[in-house]
């Protein structure tokens, strides 16, 4: 791990959450003894997620990073939030395990009502999600990746629920323990869409073979969910990176997966 003091949470924030020692950079968050701290990016989502995870029962199928309440009360301090440190390391070479633990987590939160904050959140990932589900227009990309996806997209009628929109790198594995889910970005979509995003990420970026998509083709509307997962990721890249999104490597990573998704959508199992 790289120790990066610049941008670390202040000492009074660490103390308020019961942290200890000098914060250490984990790559996306800071560890301070028994807690992990990260900046709050959208307060309504942070507060909703903290309330949900604070009351979520323990499960034999998965662990999760439970939020830490500050000593003075509340879930945030000076723009920071905190959670318990959970044992384990990410392993993107285990997408099937991530998919299985994601399914267990989604079953555990399936009863939750739709979060109101989703109407107000507006970031590149939310814009990509809305484009995937026809809630905003899709702007064509110069590489032509989106056009075949949009042509192949058809209406589906699956129920939505609160889901984790970025499982692939946010599942931790530790010997002898159930996998742990961290860093929950909340979306209101079919649970199978979260699985499709995980598969798309594994195929594009983590060296998974196309057989991974075939193993999960039993999920309802699988081809259409893959289509939407790709539109989500590609539009997000387009909004986040602009013209810099379309490097040769990025286009080469997406293109075969686009072809696979379109084939799945046109010839469902």
Structure description:
A hairpin with a 4-residue loop joins strand 1 (24-25) and strand 2 (30-32). The longest helix has 20 residues, at 222-241. The protein contains 9 helices and 10 strands. It folds into 2 domains: 11-86, Phosphorylase Kinase, domain 1, CATH 3.30.200; 90-266, Aminoglycoside 3'-phosphotransferase, Chain: A, domain 2 (Alpha-Beta Complex). Helix 4 packs antiparallel against helix 8. The chain has helices at residues 11-16, 43-55, 95-109, 124-132, 146-152, 191-205, 211-215, 222-241, 248-266; strands at residues 24-25, 30-32, 35-39, 63-64, 80-84, 89-90, 161-164, 171-173, 180-181, 186-189.
Stretches with pLDDT under 50, minimum 5 residues: 1-5
Q: Just name the CATH architecture of the largest domain.
A: Alpha-Beta Complex
By CATH, the superfamily of the largest domain comes out as Aminoglycoside phosphotransferase (APH), C-terminal lobe
**SSE arrangement, N to C:** HEEEHEEEHHHEEEEHHHH
- Mean pLDDT across the residues is 96
How far from one another are the termini?
Answer: 44 Å
Count of DSSP E strands?
Answer: 10
Please, how many helices? 9
- Total of domains: 2
Strands of the biggest beta sheet: in what spatial order? 1-2-3-5
Helical residue percent band: 40-55%
User: Regarding CATH, which class of the largest domain?
Assistant: Alpha Beta
SS strand fraction: 5-15%
Radius of gyration: 19 Å
**Helix vs. strand class:** alpha+beta
Tell me about the largest β-sheet.
4 strands, antiparallel
Shape: globular
Instruction: Output the CATH topology of the largest domain.
Output: Aminoglycoside 3'-phosphotransferase, Chain: A, domain 2
């Amino acid at each position: 791990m790289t120790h990066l003091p610049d941008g670390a949470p202040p000492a009074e924030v660490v103390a308020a959450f019961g942290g200890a020692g000098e914060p250490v950079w984990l790559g996306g968050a800071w560890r301070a003894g028994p807690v992990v701290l990260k900046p709050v990016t959208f307060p309504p989502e942070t507060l909703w997620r903290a309330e949900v995870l604070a009351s979520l029962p323990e499960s034999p199928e998965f662990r999760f990073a439970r939020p830490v309440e500050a000593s003075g009360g509340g879930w945030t301090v000076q723009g920071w939030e905190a959670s318990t440190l959970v044992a384990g390391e990410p392993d993107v070479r285990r997408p099937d395990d991530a998919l299985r633990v994601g399914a267990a987590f989604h079953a555990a939160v399936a009863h939750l009502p739709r979060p109101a904050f989703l109407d107000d959140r507006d970031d590149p990932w939310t814009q990509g999600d809305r484009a995937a589900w026809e809630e905003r227009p899709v702007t064509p990309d110069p590489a032509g990746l989106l056009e075949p996806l949009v042509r192949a997209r058809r209406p589906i009628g699956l129920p939505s629920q609160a889901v984790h929109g970025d499982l692939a790198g946010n599942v931790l594995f530790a010997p002898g323990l159930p996998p742990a889910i961290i860093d929950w970005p909340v979306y209101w979509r079919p649970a199978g869409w979260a699985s499709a995003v995980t598969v798309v990420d594994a195929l594009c970026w983590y060296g998974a073979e196309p057989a991974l998509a075939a193993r999960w083709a039993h999920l309802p509307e699988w081809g259409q969910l893959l289509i939407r997962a790709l539109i989500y990721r590609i539009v997000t890249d387009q909004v986040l990176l602009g013209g810099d999104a379309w490097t040769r490597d990025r286009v080469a990573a997406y293109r075969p997966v686009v072809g696979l998704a379109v084939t799945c959508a046109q010839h469902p199992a």
